[in-house]
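Please decode residue identities from the backbone states below.
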């Protein structure tokens, strides 16, 4: 009677293949979720960089011209223009740096998926023995 309750090798292999397919599908779904999260982080960084760039362009016209005119009353016009341009470049660099910092936190490698794939490989190795 013990022979009747045992499954055939073909049935066991079919189950293994089915389980592996389910595991792979689950890993792909997890990877998609993780990549979506990282794209969100990248989007925030890009928005900071775009905002910084826009501020630089707007400030370039209005502030530089008015500051140059104001400083030209005390300094030579070329020195006033140089001082204002340096200040605007410094502020723009700080905003751009804030955007770049957002990109440093982005990881395109999905860490949870990698960990679970490694666990699944270990599980499959122990089951194969």
């Amino acid at each position: 009677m013990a022979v009747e309750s045992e499954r055939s090798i073909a049935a066991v292999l079919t189950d293994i293949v089915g389980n592996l397919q389910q595991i792979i599908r689950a890993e792909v779904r997890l990877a998609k979720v993780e990549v979506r999260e990282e794209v969100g982080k990248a989007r925030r960084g890009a928005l900071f960089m775009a905002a910084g760039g826009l501020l630089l362009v707007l400030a370039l016209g209005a502030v530089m011209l008015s500051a140059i005119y104001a400083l030209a009353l005390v300094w030579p016009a070329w020195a006033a223009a140089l001082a204002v341009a340096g200040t605007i470049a410094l502020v723009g660099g700080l905003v751009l740096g804030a955007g770049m910092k957002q990109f440093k936190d982005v990881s395109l490698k999905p860490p949870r998926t990698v960990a679970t794939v490694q666990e699944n490989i270990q599980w499959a190795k122990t089951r194969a023995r």
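Observation: The two ends are 26 Å apart (CA to CA).
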